[in-house]
Amino acid sequence: MEKKIEYLEFSKTEQENSVEELFCSELERTGKINPLDEGMMKLLVTLVRNKSAINEIYEDARKMSFLIPILEDRLKTMNRELDKAAAIFIGLACQTPGDSVMYSYYIAYQMKKRNIGNKLTLEEICMSIFPNGLFDKGSMDEVWDKQKVNRDGAGSDNLLDYRKASESLIYEVNA
Fold it and tell me: Do the Cβ atoms of 168 and 122 come closer than 8 Å?
């Protein structure tokens, strides 16, 4: 059975808080969290116990996964960043480019909400933003479909790809 997608009106792409209000708050409200699986738990322990090797681990992880640069680049558009350990952890948790984009916006949203500033550490990710695990695949798929935009007969695209719609999440350096 094919799922029915309800598209957002194109005008939502012009509202600077649409990503925050329509995507991030929805994921926060409805997203199911799964505890870390064994592989992610081992990764977390490795990152915490091997701080002196983070640079090397980071370079290797970026070579293994193109999803880490997607995550980092999208966060940069909002003047935000993750430390290398956090980028490895979240980047390797992602399975698709869409996951990287969704996590980047959700992390920026949480950074804004918690007044964290522009750089987030692995410790803050684990203690404040994702203390109980990470989003399950079903929740990610569901909110991905809910952020689709109707392009007036020209198909659909993603609210998350409209910079104007996420301006409320941009960290103002002089704020």
Answer: no
Indicate the pTM of the whole model. Answer: 0.94
For residue 98, count CB atoms less than 10 angstroms from its CB and return exposed for 0-12, middle for 13-18, buried for 19 or more: middle
- Local confidence pLDDT in tens for the 175 residues of the chain: 667 888 899 999 999 999 999 999 999 999 999 999 999 999 999 999 999 999 999 999 999 999 999 999 999 999 999 999 999 999 999 999 999 999 999 999 999 999 999 999 999 999 999 999 999 999 999 999 999 998 876 666 999 999 999 999 999 977 5
Domain boundaries, the chain: 10-169
| Helix, strand, coil percentages for the chain (3-state, nearest 5) | 60, 10, 30
